[in-house]
Amino acid sequence: MPTTHCLSDFAKRLQKLPAAEWKTAVESMPEKCERCTVNCRQVCADYARVQWRMAGRRVKR
Question: Record's superkingdom (predicted)?
């Protein structure tokens, strides 16, 4: 999984949000910023997707 400079801030923000607001948080990410060489929104969406699956598995147990 590629990383971006934006991922750290995004992960911290995602941690504070209810799951219902994650989509909005992903959509607010820029596709390209001045610090990253990859699509920030796509990387953050992939991260959120993995976190969503992990949270879902924790609840089922």
Answer: Bacteria
Contacts of 25 (CB under 8 A, 6+ apart): 10, 13, 14, 17, 44, 48
CA pair distance 10, 13, nearest whole angstrom: 5
> Considering only CA atoms, which of 58, 45, 57, 60 is closest in space to residue 1?
45
pLDDT in tens, 13-38: 999 999 899 999 999 998 888 888 88
**CA 61 – CA 43 distance, rounded (Å):** 28
CB 10 within 8 A of CB 25: yes
